[in-house]
């Protein structure tokens, strides 16, 4: 069995929904994971924000506006010419969910209801697509993700729970090949409606692949796989045919927007290949992420903006054990992840991209020594096979940007990347220069 995930743009209109059958083969056994239709989640966030602020009038206006869009979707997806009562079924689905939203607007609204509101997008897209398949005579089974997707008290998914609750449903439908389910949504440890946060529907697909030991997980987007540089900035980029899980995670973390860095971890743990494919070009090979990868090769370049560099300098650091632990504890207290770190005898420099608690962090760090901040920084990450036995790659990377000031360099932290911290104003030049030196 394969897992096929389609994002919001892939189901962004009735026309796009209908074209999914150019990719989804009802003759093959597969689970299709759908996101909410593009724009829906943003609208639901607006609705929820209005209701959290107790602006009931605005909330109801936003609900009615969104419902009007879905009324049009039903009319186009399930025209009267389809015969039967499918148009009525589709309208009944829309009416049900929007009556439910209105009922939430007329009651006490808390963070619990907020999660319920956000879940409606995926519930709508999957149920409407299921009705559409029925209308054209394609058998399918609608799988409610809330019956088998669960996170624990630490917001981590419980894969054995998914296996235990999903497997009997699949076994009970041996004659059905096509199963439709929701991405993103789940239940939490209290049984309340919640969501996976990190990676959303991609994460769902990876978790399902791990839970049922699928043959392959396919993530369909509007891009033909991961490219060897940012195509919005650099001309002539090309999709990468093969990546290891570690290489893909590095690229995703440092700026490749096609994939959330943690979304393929479940597939990696269970060694399930993940294929990134383009809905607009179904015949394109895309990118295969697996345990295998081409050796001795630089694969791609990515960039992550919004970085702040922090330098703590103190002569007391000299030969002082426990110093780094104390520094890290400051960031731990404020739940602020660190991206890069370099050290010397008298100073440590590190970078963060979450700055909500920066003032408090700096105040505490001042007790260790002098603190300097550099804002508007960018991490440029060059990913490939940089094992200790390889040589020449680092010099090639540094030679490509020798005309630009570099604030920090991180090399050797893993066998898969060289990271450089530069001024954001130099990002475009750095990406183009690296591309010309490495790939041309």
From TrEMBL:
GO terms for biological process: homoserine biosynthetic process; lysine biosynthetic process via diaminopimelate; threonine biosynthetic process. ATP binds at residues 5-8, 221-222, 232. SUPFAM superfamilies: ACT-like, Carbamate kinase-like. Pfam families: AA_kinase, ACT_9. GO terms for molecular function: aspartate kinase activity; ATP binding. Pathway: Amino-acid biosynthesis; L-threonine biosynthesis; L-threonine from L-aspartate: step 1/5; Amino-acid biosynthesis; L-methionine biosynthesis via de novo pathway; L-homoserine from L-aspartate: step 1/3; Amino-acid biosynthesis; L-lysine biosynthesis via DAP pathway; (S)-tetrahydrodipicolinate from L-aspartate: step 1/4. Substrate binds at residues 41, 122. GO terms for cellular component: cytosol. InterPro entries: AceGlu_kinase-like_sf, ACT-like_dom_sf, ACT_Aspartokinase, Asp/Glu/Uridylate_kinase, Asp_kin_monofn, Asp_kinase, Aspartate_kinase_CS. Transmembrane segments: none annotated. PROSITE patterns: ASPARTOKINASE. Residues 2-278 form the Aspartate/glutamate/uridylate kinase domain. Residues 380-436 form the Aspartokinase ACT domain. Keywords: Amino-acid biosynthesis, ATP-binding, Kinase, Nucleotide-binding, Transferase. It catalyses: L-aspartate + ATP = 4-phospho-L-aspartate + ADP. Its EC number is 2.7.2.4. NCBIfam families: asp_kinases. PANTHER family: ASPARTATE KINASE (PTHR21499), ASPARTOKINASE (PTHR21499:SF59). Belongs to the aspartokinase family. This is Aspartokinase.
